[in-house]
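Narrative of activities, Objective 1.

The group set out to show that a structural description can be obtained from nothing but a protein's sequence at a throughput compatible with the screening campaign. Below is one input-output pair from the validation batch, recorded exactly as produced.
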Amino acid sequence: MLDKFTAFVEQHLAGPMEKLANQRHLRALRDGIIATLPLIIVSSFFMIIAFPPLPQSWGITQFLSSHAATILLPYRMTMYVMSLYATFGIGHSLAKSYKLDGLSGGILATTAFLLTFTPVNIPAEAQDAAGVTGFVLPMANLGGGGMFVAIITSIIAVEIYRFTDKSKFKITMPDQVPPAVARSFEALTPTLIIILGMGTITYFLGFDWHTLVSTIVSPLVKAADSLPSVIFIVFLTTFFWSFGIHGASIVGSLARPLWLQLLEGNTTAVANGTALPHIAAEPFYQWFIWIGGAGSTIGLAILLAFRTKSKYGSTLGKTALIPAIFNINEPLIFGTPIVLNPILIPPFIIAPIVNGIIAWTVTSLGLVNEVSVNAPWTLPGPIGAFLATGGDWRAIVLNVILIVLSIIIYYPFVAIYDKNELDKEKEMAATQA
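Output recorded for this entry:
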């Protein structure tokens, strides 16, 4: 029965899912947003500096809190305008996939996105305490809230660029002209179309891109923060991985824009000193579900390293344990292997689902802080959980409990796996003898 199911998945699902993962627009979306992760990670640490996990009575804590507004400025100029950076990355990646100039694609995408905003003119008599006058660009939708508009306009801009290139509706310079200059002239036509088109739609027709898209997407954002959504995302990710398909790539490409909005909602709340509204932002998955990598495989690595009697299992465990501590588990996924392994697939799916249910419940009850910092994913679990929750020591306890729980879930399956490996080794030794 299992063999038939495996054959069905390989024949009917593996191919389409692989094509979906490599679809150029989804790949550009994934690459463009992932390119912003260094900014998200580094800017998140300014939250910890401004609001350190130290007693309020300490002098350093009082000093940092009194200068929090200044300390948070780098965060506001990165995380608060994240959609702007992602737009350039998406446009660059999509243009390169069409073998077009990536720099031009990124600039055109950014231009199209900015043309969805209407600057506000502040007259001199209405200037605020900071002396701000003239045209001001509203920043509310430059962060995670504008991510879906950024995706749409980036694709529109690059598709216009591709159309002008394929139809030869462009200015072509002689071969003697330097390549950089030639590319600039080739981008004139799509630039004209994008500026006139987007400007007309936004300013003359009065189309509000952000309100419309927000109305459409808000139910998805709300749903993404629910426990059923967490379970569904975890199941899909591990299910695809079980058959050798990069689950994180497929699911993450679709869910990451939603995760960014959830994370930005929490970071904004921290900066404003209000209650954090969301649970299931991306760091929640990293530090309370994907401990040791997809499938919560830190438990598997520990068991293989210290509890197996087979030479292969023990050697693999000791080799894979250090990478697993830093959330790298490809040696386990392809070494045991977990892929197409009927013994190890069940705990690979069950362990992270159970961890997700417990972590979501504990967080929703207020026993652990919501995540607000995108800590580097290669940190050991307890450290990453501590930083991601703004320095909540209870997150360390939860992370350790979930690691122990993953060990318990994997244990009976590893015992069966180890026995099979021992039988193989004895049979091989007897054959050689």
